[in-house]
Write a structure and sequence with these properties.
alpha+beta, Alpha-Beta Plaits, Gyrase A, domain 2, Multidrug efflux transporter AcrB transmembrane fold, 4 domains, 4-stranded antiparallel β-sheet, 21 helices, 17 strands, 58% helix, globular
Length: 753
């Protein structure tokens, strides 16, 4: 790069930083397009719509309620991946959709949840399943739904409808028509293909029966095999859209009717949000200062790259309409700390190359080249996990995966492209002395392999002993192995009609502490019902005595009338199906990560030892939850997934160095190669863990209780991840590789290159 090109790159970098900063802070146009304030936020940050449905049955079975909740969850996730659906009392289901403020519009779009069926016109014997009744002006069933199911006349149910949209379609002559487009899942597509083949051959219709009546009886004009269908000749675009709404919400196990809807406020006050954002800014500044002090000029470049990374993250959250919750803010702050990792790997490599005698120019080129494989493999491995979690996960798991994937892509871009351009530009304009970059002095290897028995013993205690003992003690003391929050086990929802409009700040400072004294638990959430003085207080399950204490506390401290207080039990917002989906997603993600590492490193031992280390870190953090009794809620899933991504990334860096050092090394030097590789990457491991820890620690010190319960186990996971990647993975790979072979003498002298 020439000097004038370097100046141009530096000017462009300043302009990009200014543009991103302006966009994130102010945005463009009258609505502030692209600004941070326009990011879709969750129920905890901005509030949303709360809808309560009641089943037509007074005492529906637990399985029917569970199935209906799960299916309804899939429907409302089209509004936000952070939408929640849970049971209230015996036959009510509550829906909370963040980031929206028009309850009537949501109800209109969502429709009335009922049962949806696609029915053949005739059965296999030629008997008509439905006929037109002129007296009622509509089609009517000739058999019950159960009878139709027994006869095999139900083509498919509404659960097979993936999406439906109503709109206008123009034919070949230019005339407009109103249509409803349908898309089925794979099983529904096959069933619909068979049904349309039968109907087409016999010149019949397929009736669409919803909530006790036919909403459409279209003729089949062609065999549909691609899983997409079009219902044409609708009387208006509104009718087409109404039918689409019906099809999207249909086929729930239970038929529901809406009994109330309201707009609810944020569950966290503005002070809590401001404090968390301030903590993030302070953490970012501390990391930037650390990078500049340690890496001099490259550290300054890394700081610029981090600013660009943060700006791009905020802009992309807008672009992809990702829903941001307070744990999501924590996840972004954490990802900023992890984004430092790629820069640390690169600049540590540059210093190594300068220490080995290369010129600054050669060191920069070689440093980026040698760091690429570690950065690429580490990030791609984590990106694979994010993709699997995004496809198979639901709710907060899917939301976490989207944010994680975005962070990984932006991290790689800023490290491999932005940092490289700026470093080369600075070199081109005159920063060519090695004093600006520093150099690594070769130091003796540390015998990590020789201490493997000690490390393995410590790990067995931490990963097996501590969780087992902690959960056993918790079970004996409280009846639960872990301190499960109401999101996992349900709780009590108490609605209180205050005599005045209570601000969120007053609820946090005055109401929540009193409720925590009653429950003995910090897992308390207050939700305001906008346009009224009503507040819903969600806690763990309260017994009769605690409910009475809740009533007396509200009456004595706030003058609330007894009749203005009501309570009912609510189910977990994380259903069994969602937990199952999360577990399956994590297992599949681990398998795909194992396969990728095996493919890239051409050695199954690298893959298996990485996955074992990953399992080790998850178990250690689980033990921390058991011992500390930190609440296990939605943030627990995000925490564990973060540890998985962090752990595998740290391990890949060491394995990449082992792979590099294995070239030309004899078998007798295997232990020396492992020790050398860990020692050479030790600085990176320490610095990355330290910067990430600082980001989260500031958040823990300054954050509110809910975010502190997310930050604390993350800090434990960062320490554990650093320990396992340095002390466990290399030794584990060595044991697997050398198992059954005659031991060779091990020395700590480096092999001359």
């Amino acid at each position: 790069m020439k000097k004038n090109q370097g100046i141009a790159v530096l000017i462009l970098s300043v302009l990009v930083i200014a543009l991103l900063s302006f966009t994130a802070a102010v945005g463009w146009g009258p609505t502030g397009t692209g600004s941070a304030r326009n990011i879709i936020t969750g129920l905890d940050l901005a509030g949303g719509v709360s809808i309560t449905y009641e089943a037509d049955q007074d005492l529906p079975s637990a399985s029917d309620m569970s199935d209906t909740i799960y299916k309804l969850q899939q429907r409302v996730m089209t509004y936000s991946e952070e939408a929640k659906v849970y049971q209230q009392g015996t036959n009510r289901i509550a829906v909370e959709i963040p980031g929206v403020s028009d309850a009537n519009k949501i109800l209109e779009e969502l429709g009335t949840p009922g049962s949806l069926y696609f029915i053949k016109q005739t059965d296999d014997d030629g008997n008509e399943n439905y006929t037109y009744d002129g007296s009622v002006g509509n089609y009517v069933l000739n058999y019950t739904i159960d009878e139709l199911k027994e006869k095999g006349s139900i083509v498919l149910e509404g659960s097979s409808v993936v999406d439906a949209q109503g709109g206008v379609d123009q034919d070949n002559t230019g005339n407009n028509g109103y249509v409803t487009d349908l898309e089925f899942d794979s099983e529904g597509a096959k069933a619909f293909a068979d049904a349309t083949q039968y109907a087409y051959d016999n010149k019949q219709t397929i009736g669409i029966y919803y909530d006790g009546e036919f909403v459409s009886v279209p003729s089949v004009k062609a065999v549909i095999t691609n899983g997409h269908a079009v219902i044409s000749n609708m009387e208006s675009v509104e009718a087409a859209q109404r039918l689409a709404t019906t099809l999207r919400i249909g086929s729930l196990t239970l038929e529901l009717h809406e009994i109330s809807s309201s707009v609810v406020g944020a569950t966290l006050g503005s002070n809590a949000i401001k404090t968390s954002l301030t903590a993030g800014a302070i953490g970012l500044v501390l990391v930037m200062i650390f990078m500049i002090v340690v890496y001099a000029l490259p550290g300054f470049v890394a700081s610029l790259a981090l600013i660009i990374y943060t700006g791009l993250e905020l802009v992309m959250l807008n672009a992809f309409d990702l829903t941001l919750t307070l744990p999501g803010i924590a996840g972004i702050i954490l990802s900023i700390g992890m984004a430092v990792d790629a820069n640390v790997i690169i600049y540590a490599r540059i210093r190594e190359e300068i220490g080995a005698g290369k010129s600054v120019r050669g060191a920069i080129t070689s440093g980026f080249k040698k760091a690429f494989s570690a950065i690429f493999d580490g990030n791609i491995t984590t990106l694979i996990a994010a993709a699997v979690l995004g496809v198979l996960g639901t709710g907060s798991v899917q939301g976490f995966a989207m944010t994680l994937a975005l962070g990984i892509v932006l991290s790689m871009f800023t490290a491999l492209v932005v940092s490289r351009l700026i470093v080369n530009a600075l070199y081109a304009v005159g920063f060519r002395d090695e004093k600006w970059y520093g150099k690594t002095v070769e130091r003796p290897s540390i015998d990590f392999v020789g201490k493997k028995k000690l490390f393995f013993t410590i790990s067995l205690i931490l990963a097996i002993g501590v969780p087992v003992v902690g959960m056993a003690v918790g079970k004996a003391a409280t009846g639960n192995t872990l301190n499960f929050s109401l999101e996992f086990v349900g709780g009590t929802s108490t609605t209180v009609s205050f005599n005045e409009d209570m601000s969120m700040e007053r609820l946090e400072s005055e109401v929540e502490p009193l409720v925590e004294k009653i429950t003995g638990d910090a897992d308390v959430t207050c939700v305001k019902v906008m346009g009224s003085n009503d507040v819903t207080i969600k806690t763990r399950v309260l017994n009769v005595d605690e409910r009475e204490r809740m009533e007396s506390t509200m009456m004595e401290n706030f003058g609330v009338a007894k009749e203005g207080i009501s309570a009912q039990n609510i189910s977990a917002t994380v259903s069994n199906e969602m937990r199952r989906d999360a577990i399956v997603a994590v297992i599949v993600a681990a398998i795909f990560m194992l396969l990728y590492i095996w493919f890239r490193f051409k050695n199954i031992r690298f893959a298996s030892s990485a996955v074992i280390a990953l399992l080790h870190d998850v178990l250690v953090v689980l033990g921390f939850y058991a011992v500390s009794r930190v609440s296990v809620g939605n943030t627990f899933i995000a925490c564990m997934l973060t540890i998985v991504g962090y752990s595998i990334n740290a391990t890949i860096v060491i394995f990449d160095r082992i792979r590099e050092n294995m070239v030309g090394a004899g078998k007798k030097d295997l232990a020396v190669v492992v020790n050398d590789s860990i020692t050479q990457t030790l600085t990176r491991s320490i610095y990355t863990s330290l910067t990430t820890f600082v980001m989260v620690a500031v958040l823990w010190v300054m954050g509110v209780s809910s975010i502190r319960e997310f930050a604390l186990p993350i800090m434990a996971g960062i320490i554990c991840g650093a320990y396992s990647s340095v002390c466990i993975t290399g030794s584990l790979w060595y044991v697997m590789t050398s198992y059954g072979k005659k031991a060779e003498p091990v020395t700590n002298n480096r092999k001359k290159k």
